[in-house]
Amino acid sequence: MKIPPGLTLLLMLLSAGAYAQYSGEAESQPGPRADFLALDRNRDGHISKVEALANPEVHKRFAAFDTDKDGRLSEAEYAAAMEDNEKRIVQDAIITARVKAALLAERGIPSLSISVETYEGRVQLGGFVRVPDIVSRAGRVTASVSGVRTVDNNITVR
Q1: In angstroms, rounded to a whole number, what is the distance separating the alpha carbons of residues 135 and 153?
Q2: CA 68-71-77 angle, 5° bins
Q3: C-alpha–C-alpha distance, residues 137 and 90, integer Å
Q4: Contact present, 89 and 120 (Cβ < 8 Å)
Q5: Are 123 and 99 within 8 A, CB to CB?
């Protein structure tokens, strides 16, 4: 029985994918995360408040993620803190994109001359414009964007 060339190719791709998945599972043994180990200086399997000083984001959220309130983060608590931080980063990127789009859509605002940075919903505007009115308009447009908590308007008139 002769197998059609297309079917042969499909079978080869499927078997290569299965092999890659199988070999990937064999290589990825469960164990502590490298970033967790880097913070766990004394290798006790937990991150203390002092050890957390090496990562400002972990230190800042330490109490919120120390769910068992033992004064140290287990690997699971650390993973939850890092997941929360990644969500915040994505949310801030979304807000930054919305602000840039709103500034771009607004007539008369030189949006390419304005920088936008976001951290925890606080937006900082920077750059240089020619007219003072543009500074306040850019601030108002930014404040109207969904997700923006506060606006720090550092746009300068030149």
Answers
A1: 8
A2: 50
A3: 26
A4: no
A5: yes
CB-CB neighbours of 158 under 10 Å: 8
Q: Which residues make beta-bridge pairs with 116?
A: 125
Token pair listed for 57:
């984001």
> What is this structure's pTM?
0.74
pLDDT of residue 127: 97
pLDDT of residue 33: 86
> Tokens 């008369």 correspond to what residue?
108
Written as six digits, the tokens of 40 are 């766990």
Q: Which two tokens stand for residue 105?
A: 């859509």
8 A C-beta contact, residue 109 and residue 141: yes
According to the model, what pLDDT value does residue 18 have?
A: 46
Low-confidence ranges of the chain (pLDDT < 70): 1-31
H or E element that contains 7: helix 5-27
